[in-house]
Amino acid sequence: MSSSSVELEAPRTRAGEVRIAPLSAATYIRHAVHGPDRIWPETNCYTDLVIELVHGLGFEPLAMLAYTLAIDFEGDQWTFFKPVHAELYDLYGFDIQELAVWRRLVDHVVEQVRAGNMPLVEVDSWYLPDTAGTAYRRARTKSTIGVNAIDLDRRWMGYFHNAGYYELEGEDFDEIWQLGGVAHERMLPPYVEYVKRRPAYMPPRGAEVARMARPLLARHLDHAPRSNPFERFAGRFGADLPELLAADISHFHAYSFATLRQYGACYGLAEAHLRWLAGQGAPGLVAAAEAFGEIAQTAKSFQFQLARAMARKKPLDLAPLDAMAGQWERGMALAREASG
After folding, report:
1. What pLDDT does residue 16 have?
2. pLDDT tens digits along 19-30
3. b/e map 27-39, b = 16+ CB within 10 Å
4. Which of 17, 35, 165, 338 could form a Cys-Cys staple with 284, CB 3.0–4.6 A?
5. Between the CA of residue 9 and those of 14, 53, 157, 184, what are the distances in Å?
6. Does CATH place domain 17-197 in 3.40.50?
7. Is this model's pTM higher than 0.85 or not?
8. Under the phi-then-psi rule, with left for phi > 0, alpha for psi from -120 to 50, and beta for the rest, what region is 136?
9. Is 23 helix (H, G, I), strand (E, B) or coil?
10. Is residue 145 scored above 80 in pLDDT?
11. Where are the beta strands (DSSP E) in the chain?
12. What DSSP designation does 19 have?
């Protein structure tokens, strides 16, 4: 997979509109890791957002994904994997800082976009039309968006969310930013970050960014679990299974997101990262990529098997957990050998 700078004709800017990148929801092409042919076309909201932000601003997000090799089973969930801010700074010159919210939130957002800093804001997916069919006007779920363009007078916004770039306006705009006389005084301010560009920095591209990415792989392999996380997860999953088989589908979705989907999607990105490094001349990584790809595929199949078992209240074969444990051992050994 590869990504290059997004070449788009700049949308016509209206009076009152501020924007960072010349993007349009109608013509935006998402990165290949979010393509329909992927086993897990979406991962988690923060990682997907940053992948598309990096891609949308013209850089290769596959270079930043070494951190996916270091996830672990955390007792009742797998690591919620997120890009490492220091590595975003080194690879792309993106300095992510927390924004203090001390006045009306939308005014902060307009000011930061005008300054060229992209705000990353936790909002309610109930008002995000790109989640139609899942959360939009159906479920109150927290999710992070990256605001690229905004027009307060027109009540319009262009934003990154999950695996794409979208636009919204009107009532959704009012509700996202708590405008229009809606009483939200008792709500705490959301967590907000902003992406500031490193001054006078020309981010590396091509072979140079691959050269910078290689030592990150060794670093994250050094941070990876020393014991097989799938062996620990198998024990916990077996203990959780009776409760799962007695639960409804909403419990399945919550459990799967924290476990099967979390590590399955993560190792799918790990595979993409290793294949990209191999394509950039790093030797010995294809076999490791294949092992992590097998985990991603097996996790997807096992998720469906769990859903069927819960629906039918029938026993579930746990052999796929052993298979994933074996692929993890194989993939880690091969990746460590190749990275030196």
Report:
1. 84
2. 999 999 999 999
3. ebebbebbeeebb
4. 338
5. 15, 18, 18, 39
6. no
7. yes
8. beta
9. coil
10. yes
11. 17-19, 94-98, 118-124, 142-151, 156-161, 164-169, 192-197
12. E
